[in-house]
Amino acid sequence: MTVVFLDDTSAISESDDQQEQTNWIMPPKSLEALNLPDMTAGLPQPRINVEESEDAAANEAAGDQAGHALLFGRYMGQISARIERAWQRPRTQIGAPSFLCRVQINQDRAGNVREVTLQRCGGSVRWQASLVHAIEAASPLPAPPDPDVFSNLVSLEFDADAYVPGGSEEGFEPDTQEAVTAAAADASSSELSALIARLKAQRRPAEGSLDLRIEGPPRGQESPGPVTNPPAEAED
Questions:
Q1: What pTM value is reported for the model?
Q2: Calpha distance 159→139 (Å, rounded)
Q3: Quick one: which H or E segment has residue 106?
Q4: N or C: which end of the chain has fewer CB within 10 A?
């Protein structure tokens, strides 16, 4: 470092002023030679909050579970929609206010239906069979949006209302002669079943009924022959 002492400021020329400013500028090598203290020494170091890290991990896991549930729900919706499109509902009566059925489907990795189990299913046999046929027609079932949400066993619930003449025919079997005959036969069967049920409910035991019993020897034993009177002896 160069120090300049000035005795008379009036004697300083413009060139001297420039030289003074130049002398006060330190070259880069001089800066490297300085042993400056570390300004960060003694300052508190940042610490990792363990609780915040655990909360972040828990939130990430919860987000993964929510995403998994969302994908699984979408997967079940795709399977249900394909079965609904393939379902030709009968035009016959359900036998209940509405058709409600819970089914379990066993499928392989390719979506091929292996087995259909009706767990809780009301309605007539014709309605139940129509749903089973729809599930078989929808095979192979849609692929999952993510392989992690695939399941061999799929449980779904289906519900439907009976056909109303003059109403919408979407989702119901075609109006063919076979369907009309089946509907008439189903109606006749339902009326006959209802008639038998009413007759059973109205039947009462008659008063003063006669109890008729027929008894005989135990099976395997011969019954004794008829009893005849011995011949009378001739008198002399």
A1: 0.53
A2: 20
A3: strand 99-107
A4: C
Record the tokens describing residue 129, joined without a space.
């069979």
| pLDDT tens for each residue of 105-147 | 999 999 999 999 999 999 999 999 999 999 999 999 999 999 9
Query: In this structure, what token pair is assigned to residue 197?
Result: 């049920």
Strands 113-121, 153-160: pairing is: unpaired
* Integer Cα distance of 99 and 87 in angstroms: 13
Instruction: Retrieve residue 169's tokens.
Output: 């025919």
Amino acid at 42: G
Task: Classify 27 as helix, strand or coil.
Answer: coil
Q: Which amino acid is at 20?
A: E
Its CATH architecture, for the domain 66-198, is 2-Layer Sandwich (3.30)
- Widest CA span in the chain: 206
DSSP 129-164: HHHHHHHHHTPSPPPPSSGGG--SEEEEEEEE----
